[in-house]
Design a protein that fits this description.
By secondary structure, the protein is mainly alpha-helical. It has a domain at about 215-395. The protein is built from 14 helices and 6 strands. The chain has helices spanning about 5-45, 50-80, 85-120, 125-155, 175-180, 185-210, 215-250, 255-260, 295-300, 320-350, 360-365, 370-385, 405-435, 465-484, and strands at about 160, 170, 270-280, 285-290, 390, 395. The strands form 3 sheets. Strands 1-2 form a two-stranded antiparallel sheet. It has a two-stranded antiparallel sheet with strand order 3-4. A two-stranded antiparallel ribbon has the order 5-6. It is globular and about 65 Å long. The chain starts with 6 loop residues before the first helix and ends with a helix. Belongs to the cytochrome ubiquinol oxidase subunit 1 family.
Length: about 475
């Protein structure tokens, strides 16, 4: 029944589905790892047990989110070989080493210190444990560094040369590939998005428990820290997003045209359309409502500056405007909603009512998942806006796919949907179950099993002996050696 479907479209849907599931976990774990480092650092500096309690409370949640991020990320690399083998063959000499660096640096760093972070609080010194927490936090950032470098190169490819066999080969300098023109902006914008995603989850959890018990000191502390993050970082994120948009206008103008809904060119200043229904067939924005010349003011810092539209781009070079147009507005709308909550919390803080305003707490609770929606909407804007290319202006998406039939791709897509919703649905449910429990004094943190890790190789340990029996056996051994 899948014979009439497009194999390339199905492959794109499969990649979008799996990467969307994957993205929400690193977006959370990157910020949460840094938050845990801050909590442990404050505990070591002040000696206040409330920071240690919050560290242990969120450590359990981090362990599950990190594990699901790793598992969902493994699938992504396989799809390069199954559904996008042509792309892997052509671009492999450039993107392959970058992704290998992510494993050799970030993943090894995280894996090496994660066990100490999760189970070593009572087994190593405080400073060593804090160092392990810092290494895990740094590892999450390094992972984002390499992955975003790969993604940015696909948007703004530089530093390569064409091989005789049609492959993209590294040029004279890897730095030109790694630090391609869009990478610094995308890195800052994405990492700040991860921090804000975590801040609003923490703030939402704190608000939930404040609504049930305003006297909960642990909920007060986490809510206060999250609102500081929202109030201070959201304005920085808006500025970073604006800079990223200006960079996109320079290197990917048709993406910005689709984001703005500009089918026509505007020689005397372009309006900023707030709403409208894009119509690609007729090349117009129907029922448009906008503010005159504001788009030129934002993008060119001059209300009368001309802006080119999609009428200057061939039809087969244009991205799907409707998806880009609305996903961009969802991201922007959530960003300003975050700003509103952050400013609202500042007013409450100045009036010393941060823990008393019920509607602020309800709003923070409603905004708890907003960061996940915003990062997915931003990713859709970025990736769909690059179409019809997988490597911008160099390799079309249609030319990058594996020669697979639609039924084969559809079958694996349905399998992914079933498995992902079952496995990760259970994981998300358990995370929500942990968040539902109020934080309290003397949190236990992550518990290690009584029997230790399961041994899959090596010598199987024998039954545990009583210390007295061990001492008696040692005396027998000594007497036996003396007799010899």
């Amino acid at each position: 029944m899948f014979d009439q479907l497009d194999a390339i479209l199905l492959a794109r849907i499969q990649f979008a589905f799996t990467v969307s599931f994957h993205f929400i976990f690193p977006a959370f774990s990157i910020g949460l790892a840094s938050y845990l480092a801050v909590l442990e650092g404050l505990w070591l500096k002040t000696g206040k047990p409330i920071y240690l309690d919050l560290f242990k409370y969120w450590l359990k949640i981090f362990a599950i989110a990190f594990a699901m991020g790793v598992v969902s990320g493994i699938v992504m690399s396989y799809q390069f070989g199954t559904n996008w083998s042509v792309f892997s063959d052509v671009a492999g000499p450039v993107i392959g080493p970058l992704m290998a660096y992510e494993v050799l640096t970030a993943f090894f760093l995280e894996a090496g210190f994660l066990g100490v972070m999760l189970f070593g609080m009572e087994r190593v010194g405080r400073k060593l444990h804090f160092a392990a927490t810092l290494m895990v936090a740094i590892g999450t950032f390094i992972s984002a560094f390499w992955i975003l470098s790969v993604n940015s190169w696909m948007h703004t490819p530089t530093g390569f040369e064409m091989g005789a066999n049609g492959q993209y080969l590294p040029g004279d300098s890897w730095l030109e590939i790694i630090f391609n023109p869009s990478f610094p902006y995308r890195l800052v914008h994405t990492v700040l998005a991860a921090y804000l995603t975590t801040a609003f989850v923490v703030g939402g959890v704190g608000a939930w428990h404040l609504l049930k018990d305003r006297a909960n000191l642990h909920a007060r502390k986490m809510f206060s820290m999250a609102m500081w993050m929202a109030a201070l970082v959201v304005p920085v994120q808006i500025f970073a997003g604006d800079m990223h948009g200006l960079n996109t206008l320079e290197y990917q103008p048709q993406k910005v045209m689709a984001m703005e809904g500009h089918y026509d060119s505007y020689p005397d200043g372009a309006p900023l359309y707030l709403f409208g229904i894009p119509n690609d067939e007729e090349q117009k924005l129907e029922y448009a409502f906008g503010i005159p010349k504001l788009s030129s003011l934002i993008l060119k810092h001059d209300p009368d500056a001309p802006l080119a539209g999609l009428d200057t781009i061939p039809d087969n070079e244009q991205p799907p405007v409707a998806i880009v147009f609305w996903s961009f507005r969802i991201m922007i709308g959530i960003g300003f909603a975050m700003l509103g909550v952050g400013l609202w919390s500042l007013v409450a803080r100045m009036r010393k009512r941060l823990y008393d305003w019920t509607w602020l707490h309800r709003s923070a609770l409603a905004m708890a998942p907003s960061g996940f929606v915003a990062v997915i909407a931003g990713w859709i804007t970025t990736e769909v806006g690059r179409q019809p290319y997988v490597i911008y202006n160099l390799m079309r998406t249609a030319d990058a796919a594996s020669p697979l039939d639609a039924p084969a791709v559809a079958t694996s897509l349905l399998a992914f949907v079933a498995v992902y919703f079952a496995v990760f649905g259970a994981g998300v449910w358990y995370i929500l179950h942990l968040m539902h429990k109020p934080p309290h004094a003397h949190e236990t943190g992550v518990k290690r099993g009584d029997t230790g890790p399961i041994r899959t190789a090596g010598i199987t340990p024998g039954p545990t002996q009583d210390p007295t029996d061990q001492t008696d056996q040692a005396l027998v051994d000594i007497e036996h050696k003396e007799d010899l």
